[in-house]
Amino acid sequence: MAKLAGKVAIVTGAGRGIGRGIALRLAADGAAVVVSDIMFDNAQKVAGEIEAAGGKALAVKTDVTNEAEVTELVEKAVEKFGKLDVMVANAGIGIVKLGVDHTPEDIDKQLAVNVKGVVLCDNAAARQMIKQGHKGYLGSGGKIINCASIAGHSGFAFLPVYSASKFAVRGYTQGFAKEMAQYKITVNGYCPGIVGTDMWELIDEKIGAYTGAAKGETLKAYVDSAILAKEVGNPEQVAGYVSFLASDDADYMTGQSVMIDGGIVLV
């Protein structure tokens, strides 16, 4: 039997990149997946991929900074599939600028999506999971899984506000794990490194605008000098770890934010 058979999962920011990879992996491992994204067309495409492969999926348009929409997301998941077992708060954004170049709007946008969005998703999921009850052992009440980053372990130049937001996600994950343990809900994070997605192509371009590096040179420099694996990661590698966190195999693990980075940050 597939390790997530019978589970119902929500994945936010699932229309592309790492979120898409997570949604496809959870579905392949047997979960019914609610594919949430602010870009509804992308969410529909990913849900269609899951259904075409024989899985169960529902696409929902969600702005994770809007509490009413996040509440509705959980309600739609329960209405469609009967319950909620896993919340993957994956949606996030990064603005590549020197700290001194950040406008108040830049700061607000990143903190709203990366911190407020995670908190709203966690809270809405937890309320539903508490309502559903548990079987008496850690993990049986549900799994909440938050997207942090290696930048939440070691701050990155040109991404200082993004880094601050990801440190905040780690802190919330730890604190919320302590609160949710009495309900047998685990709360963990995952910290991707440099992953071959549109986001990191944009980061490479934007950093190059500051440093004068040509396209691809910033990523190559990380591969050559910082990544022990000597290659950029891919969404599937991150998704495999998230699937583990969503499974019964991770029942005794909570409050952790583990790096999947090929060995960039060693702490």
Helix-strand blueprint:
Blueprint: E1 8-11, H1 17-28, E2 32-37, H2 40-52, E3 57-61, H3 67-81, E4 86-89, H4 104-132, E5 142-147, H5 160-180, E6 185-192, H6 198-211, H7 217-225, H8 235-246, E7 257-260
Parallel strand pairs: 1-2, 1-4, 2-3, 4-5, 5-6, 6-7
Helix pairs in contact: 1-2, 1-8, 3-4, 4-5
Low-confidence stretches: none
Total beta strands: 7
Radius of gyration from the CA trace?
A: 18 Å
General shape: globular
Mean pLDDT: 97
Strand content: 5-15%
Helix content: 40-55%
Structural class: alpha/beta
CATH topology description: Rossmann fold
Largest sheet: 7 strands, parallel
CATH superfamily membership: NAD(P)-binding Rossmann-like Domain
In the residues, how many domains can be counted? 1
CATH class equals Alpha Beta
Strand order of the largest sheet: 3-2-1-4-5-6-7
| Distance separating the two termini | 36 Å
Q: Report the CATH architecture.
A: 3-Layer(aba) Sandwich
Number of H- or I-type helical stretches: 8
Order of helices and strands: EHEHEHEHEHEHHHE
Explain briefly what this protein structure is:
The chain is of the alpha/beta class and 267 residues long. It has helices at 17-28, 40-52, 67-81, 104-132, 160-180, 198-211, 217-225, 235-246; strands at residues 8-11, 32-37, 57-61, 86-89, 142-147, 185-192, 257-260.
Question: Could you name the key traits of this structure?
Answer:
Rossmann fold; alpha/beta; 267 residues; 8 helices; 7 strands
